[in-house]
Design goal:
23 strands; about 600 residues; 6-stranded mixed beta sheet; alpha/beta; 7-stranded mixed beta sheet
Length: about 600
């Protein structure tokens, strides 16, 4: 990383910019220009043929519902109402600081959402599962509302409407895509041009200005920092609080209309770097802090940088977004960094889950809720190689699922071929055993190195087929065969469960669940004593309330990759059908040191 005394040259190189003109005129939206803002509505009339909602201000919940319904019918909010709404949002944002402070003293919880990238169905999914923002249900939306997705306009307008109705309960952090340069490159500007036609220039200019007024970060209960990208070894929250954020209509260009980066002072460069680092940085496993060469802005920061930053600022956790994760979330840096990404199916349908985080309770426990929107479009084009990689990874995970569910049968078949008890099989024998047990005609010779280890002679060490994966569950009676059998037939058990759960509450009584297990074991001809069935049922009743949450059962019988997965967090399921809840360690009582 660049030392303070190194001067601006290395910093300029790290930013990957050169001497070039600013792409915008900072005077076009300035209030001191008199009636410039009001003139945005000149010539914008609502046609008689307009079928969308008519807005009045202040907005009401009924108007929000009408807006949502019109968006579901693929209608565009009229340019007049869009401009009026954005002007109202701008007025409120201007009164807010660069860093907002959220408290859970009244609501007892707050929800953090990551990148949405114009995926309206995911936003609807979040509100469906978690409720609309309110005094008792505050939200932090952590940037990247727009670009790539075809409903970026609608996502931004819904979020802004929620903010207008609940300015003290909705926190809108700026992401690296709330940026005019990024919007030109990644689709939002083009979307606005298509949807607003002759009025698009006014709408684009106003969006550009409003984005520059978005706060840069939010602090929850003075313990959790929520920002879009991350930090660096020079991140200074006090300095960030004083920056004129409105100068950065694009963080990729010199601030304030500066035409020549070489004329910027060291202080201006440092301020610019503060904003870039907050919006563009990514955590990495290696210690230290170095330029983020992949993105061309921000840094890669290690666990040591995180620990030092949190300790210096009296914080316990950094929540950030900015990176797509297959599970929708990821803990790194010894549990001190949580990445949350809310756009499901980001690359292709099924490529990743979306997630949001509920911070709740006096201990500020983080509960991660995962989901996948069934109607999400492919949000951006990817290369053929990337598509193949995503398909291969998904298929490989499904294969591991099948392998783990048949572990006992496979081991028995392997040992039948391993007459000398060497723990190894020839490629031919291993392939034949896999095909026989799994009844899957696959190119096993090509797949063997992806699911097992081989020695120098090419023989397969067959126990390695399972050594990095296991099915986790609290119940351990009667050996692993019962666990694997229940996992293999979990779909049948789910069907029985849903037949019993007539009120769709997601819960059934202990006796009802035991009856479901009895039906399943009888159907599969599995010999289990009544006491064993009762033990399995009671092992699922984690809170001892006499009821079984079946979603929790499904998650409990899951394949776990022991390499790279944090086993310190307890994983359960929420009551709703698709919510996976990850209970993170209680950070309120944790020490400040790493």
């Amino acid at each position: 990383m660049v030392a303070d005394g190194d001067g601006p040259a290395p910093l300029i190189q790290a930013f990957n910019v050169n001497k070039r003109n600013s792409i915008y005129d900072t005077q076009t939206m300035v209030d001191r220009m008199g009636d410039t803002l009001n003139n945005l509505l000149d010539g914008v009339e609502v046609e008689k043929t307009y079928k969308g909602p008519h807005l009045t201000f202040p907005l009401t919940l009924n108007q929000l519902h009408k807006m949502v319904q019109s968006f579901k019918r693929k209608l565009t909010l009229h340019a007049k109402y869009t401009v009026q709404l954005l002007l109202e949002v701008r007025r409120l944002l201007k009164a807010q600081g660069n860093i907002r402070y959220a408290s859970t003293s009244l609501s007892k919880q707050v929800t953090v959402c990551g990148d949405l990238h114009g995926n309206l169905s995911d936003l609807y999914m979040i509100f469906h599962k978690n409720g609309l923002p309110s005094v008792n249900n505050p939200y932090i939306f952590n940037g990247d509302f727009v670009d790539r997705g075809q409903f970026s306009t609608e996502v931004a307008l819904v979020l802004f409407s929620c903010f207008l109705m609940n300015p003290n309960e909705v926190y809108l952090n700026r992401g690296n895509h709330e940026d005019h340069v990024m919007n030109i490159r990644y689709g939002f500007v083009k979307e606005l041009q298509m949807k607003y036609r002759e009025h698009s220039r006014k709408v684009i200019s106003l969006f550009k200005d409003v984005f520059s007024w978005l706060p840069l970060a939010t602090v929850v209960d003075e313990q959790i920092l929520v920002c879009h990208g991350g930090i660096s070894d020079t991140t200074d929250l006090k300095l960030l609080a004083k920056i004129d954020r409105h100068r950065y209509m694009s963080t990729l260009q010199p601030p304030g209309g500066c035409d020549d980066i070489s004329t910027m002072s060291q202080e201006e460069l440092l301020e610019w770097k503060q904003v870039l680092d907050l919006l563009w940085s990514d955590p990495r496993a290696a210690d230290g802090c170095y330029p983020n060469t992949f993105r061309g802005g921000g840094t890669y920061f290690g666990a040591d940088v995180t620990a030092n930053f949190l300790q210096q600022n009296g914080l316990k956790l950094l929540i950030r977004s900015h990176e797509c994760k297959s599970d929708g979330y990821e803990y790194t840096h010894n549990g001190q960094v949580l990445t949350v990404f809310s756009a499901s199916n980001y690359y292709e349908m099924g490529s990743n889950l979306g997630a949001y985080v509920r911070i709740q309770g006096s201990g500020l426990e983080c509960r991660v809720v995962q989901y996948m929107s069934a109607h999400s479009p492919a949000l951006r084009k990817v290369s053929f190689t990337q598509r193949i990689n995503h398909v291969e990874q998904s298929a490989l995970q499904d294969l591991k699922d099948r392998i783990l569910a048949s572990k006992c049968e496979l081991l028995k078949e392997f040992t039948n071929y391993d007459l000398n008890h060497t723990g190894k099989l020839s490629s031919s024998d291993w392939c034949f055993a896999m095909e026989t047990v799994l009844e899957m005609e696959l190119p096993w010779r090509m797949l063997k190195t992806k699911v097992a280890k081989c020695d120098n002679n090419g023989d397969v060490m067959y126990e390695s087929t399972f050594e990095e994966l296991e099915v986790k569950h609290k119940y351990s009676g009667n050996g692993p065969s019962i666990t694997e059998t229940l996992y293999k037939h979990r779909n049948s058990l789910e069907t029985i469960f849903r037949l019993i759960d007539t009120d769709h509450s997601g819960h059934i009584s202990m006796q009802e669940f035991e009856d479901a297990l009895t039906i399943l074991t009888r159907q599969l001809d599995i010999r289990l004593k009544e006491a064993e069935i009762s033990d399995i049922a009671h092992s699922l009743d984690l809170n001892n309330d006499g009821c079984i949450d079946f979603n929790e059962f499904l998650e409990a019988f899951r394949i776990v990759d022991n390499l790279g997965k944090d086993q310190t967090r307890k994983v359960t399921r929420d009551n709703s059908n698709d919510d996976v809840i990850i209970h993170a360690p209680d950070i309120a009582g944790a020490g400040q040191e790493a």
